[in-house]
Amino acid sequence: MSLRILVGVKRVVDFAVKVRVKPDKTGVVTDGVQHSMNPFDEIALEEAVKMKEKKLASEVVAFTLGGPKSQETLRNAMAKGADKAIHVEIPEGDVAKVEPLHVAQAIQKVVEKEKFDVVFVGKQAIDDDASQTGPLLAGLLDWPQALYASKVEDGGSGTLKVTREIDGGLDTIKVKLPAVLSADLRLNEPRYATLPNIMKAKKKPLDKIAAKDLGIDLTPQTKILEVAEPPVRKAGGFVADVPELVQKLKEKGFVKG
Description:
Helix 2 packs across helix 5 and helix 3 (100-114) crosses helix 4 (133-141). The chain has 257 residues and is α/β, with parallel strands linked by helices. The chain contains six helices and eleven strands. Strand 8 (159-166) and strand 9 form a beta hairpin.
């Protein structure tokens, strides 16, 4: 099996940063804030690179739809093993308007032109938590999908065997290629980019495409009414024993009798 794999990666506010809401409550503060690759996309990329190392894939290509700063994310992806990158570029001011449908449409155009066999994405982005890019893309391409993958294996005869964690245990399915896969948290542990690979990534090809050249309409499908901080948790208390706990619960109306 010699697959061409496209991996969607997104530039997001770093997971270790404490997010601050803008004073006008239209979004979160992003200026001057550390950004990095979406963690679930890192996992998707790692799995694609592992498949290449196992000779299941011949090429891994990183993809993003974003502003000029997204090139940093793509270079990082190539330092972690991607062979090349495709950047569908939009003005930095339009980044906040991008929704999963726009990303899925952009990937669809690229896949139809470049003829990929597998598209890997993270199960969700940590900024909007939409979890919609994979399913939308599968629908647009009319490809089978295997979402929330915790293990990916060669299924033989042009298929992949994918194990998914569900509430009741594990669900193992086979998907016929071409297919769309999304990566769950326990699929693997992403590697770090070494300095030599970071230097090599600077010389790897990065293709730029203007979103307008793909005919993508970036008009938002939804409107953010308000972004707010979660309510501050009230201080807890201590009880000496179970009878006192029951009494406290009765006082608050949580227990009757």
